Amino acid sequence: MIGLGGTPWSASGYVGAFGRAMNRIYEIDEGRPFFKLRPVMLVVTMVAVIMAGLVAVGLVLTGPLARAVGDAIGLGETAVTVRNVVKWPAPAVIAALVVAILYYATPNVRQPKFRWISPGAGVAIVTWILASALFGFYISQFSNCNKTYGSLAGVIIFLLWLWITNLALLFGAELNAEIERGRQLQAGISAEQDIPLPARDTRVIDKTVAEDARDVHEGRALRDSLGASADVSADRPAGHDSTRDDTEASTPRT
User: Fold this and answer.
1) Cα–Cα distance for residue pair 63/196, rounded to 1 Å
2) Short-list 78, 79, 117, 73, CA closest to 98
């Protein structure tokens, strides 16, 4: 139970890392505090896991199994027909929805609107499909992962496939960001250096800026105090005994 409960928390680490990469793409710092950011990442992770499970069930649900399920719920052959119709469109729609949620919820920017399908998402999905097909062809025809990694070959292949998936998603996100930059420039808005989208939250950013300003102030004060001490020492003549001056100053005169 502990392992099962900790799985979403661990999986949300990837979503958090993806969010940090999205912030770099949109040229903004993370401003959401931990108690606000982590629940969002957990919810996005759970939604993605549930949808991935639905896709897996749809692919595993073969004709005889779909017929058995249909008989159990009173649909019969209708269930097989529905399964044959939605076998491939449904996973594509679910994948597009997962990508749209990742692009919308993970960065610390308020998108103009939630888009079920965007140019970047479409390019990311097509790139992911082609890259996955090429990767599968390479593994089946040219790779010697079993000889190299032994029993760990499956894990290594899966991690490489996740890396390819992540690159495709980030490529699509970069495309969306540059399209948004182009819209801003066409509207006469200065977007050469960064993309002027409002931040979801700036509390962490404001705190970091305040801490940096305080450190700079303390550093300048330390430099000024050391500079003043150096100036006083430079004004005294060579060979002058400052201890003697302090003693004479503290001895009352008669």
Assistant:
1) 51
2) 117
For residue range 193-247, what is the model confidence (pLDDT) as tens digits? 888 888 999 999 999 999 999 999 999 988 888 877 766 665 665 555 555 554 5
Helix, strand, or coil here: 109? strand
Distance of CA 231 to the CA centre of its chain: 51
Q: Exposure of 55 by Cβ count < 10 A (0-12 exposed, 13-18 middle, 19+ buried)?
A: middle
Could you give the CA distance from residue 55 to residue 21 in angstroms, rounded to a whole number?
26
Answer yes or no: is pLDDT of 76 > 70.
no
Closest by Cα among 86, 99, 78, 93 to 58:
86
User: Which candidate, 107, 163, 115, 113, places its Cα nearest to that of 135?
Assistant: 163
Q: Phi, psi at residue 230, to the nearest 5°?
A: -65, -35
| 8 Å CB contact between 91 and 179 | no
- pLDDT computed for residue 249 by the predictor: 47
pLDDT of residue 190 exceeding 80, the answer is: yes
Q: Where are the alpha helices (DSSP H) in the chain?
A: 2-25, 34-60, 63-73, 77-86, 89-105, 119-141, 145-149, 153-186, 203-235, 242-250
- pTM of structure: 0.75
Dist CA 9 CA 220 (whole Å): 43
Report DSSP state, residue 199.
B
Instruction: Tell the residue number behind the tokens 């209708």, with chain if given.
Output: 78
